[in-house]
Amino acid sequence: MKNPNPTTTTLCLGLNVLLAIIIVLLNKWVYVQIGFPNVTMTFIHFAVTSLGLVICQKLSLFQSKVLPVIKVMPLATAFCGFVVLTNLSLGHNTVGTYQTIKTMTMPCIMYIQTYFYGRKFSWKIKFTLLPLTLGVVLNSCYDIKFNALGTTYASAGVVVTSLYQVWVGEKQKEFQVNSMQLLYYQAPLSMMILLLIIPFIEPPWVDGGLFQHAWTIKDLITVLSSGIVAFLVNLSIYWIIGNTSAVTYNVIGQMKFCLTLIGGYMLFQDTVQSIQLLGIFMTFVGIFLYTHFKIQEQKPVLPMNNKDMVKM
Q1: Which end of the chain is more exposed for a tag (fewer CB within 10 A), N or C?
Q2: Other CB atoms closer than 10 Å to residue 116's CB: what's the count?
Q3: pTM of the model
Q4: pLDDT tens for residues 217-226?
């Protein structure tokens, strides 16, 4: 695959941040105001994503490529595992504990890519994990309470999430496909796996379930809007990981976390404490340093001119 234009990368990263904030705030509205079950919402997101990709393929926005389903299945399964473990982690942990353990995703990705895919990370890039992690801890320190079961779910979620994000990039390289071509296969596979899981963890026929809700036009439009935004988010995630790296995507994720806190404060009057403001500042410091070091490493090294060489 060709290296993307820096302007295209910047626009896609910015679009992903904007869409991710919208989807978080939109989903929060759906969960709070409608009481929609979490995993079922993810199923709808991937159903809309699958339909959207079929429409894009029919409009010749990309050409579908035949892929071995058995080799795409681990990616689809890892995504479902990530969704289920995230929900179990949130169900057995405080939000602060969940966010703190989640910061281990970046070092876990680095470990997987270093020891299984031969990738190298400079000490400068590794150093940026310190302010990024510290920023999240400061944002969450008022709400950290560990317990054995919750920590187990959260730790397993970190490993599965890391595998999923690494595989998103590696599968694009392995199959020589773009983000749309790979998601065209992964989305319906994940949707079918979630369909098998939902009756056991979110039965739609019980009180509060999908079939028991008194649906209004407003509710349907809100859920559908969430699905459409999720489709765009999924596309941007695949593009970012495929054209940059899983680590870069996670760094941008920390920015989204901070901006979501600010958005929650502005739209829902969520409380933001002074220590959280310090955490937001530290996170942005880490993002700035990561971006700075990454740009430095990507600059081409120009060969020395004869005039520039010093005679010994």
Answers
A1: C
A2: 11
A3: 0.81
A4: 888 888 889 8
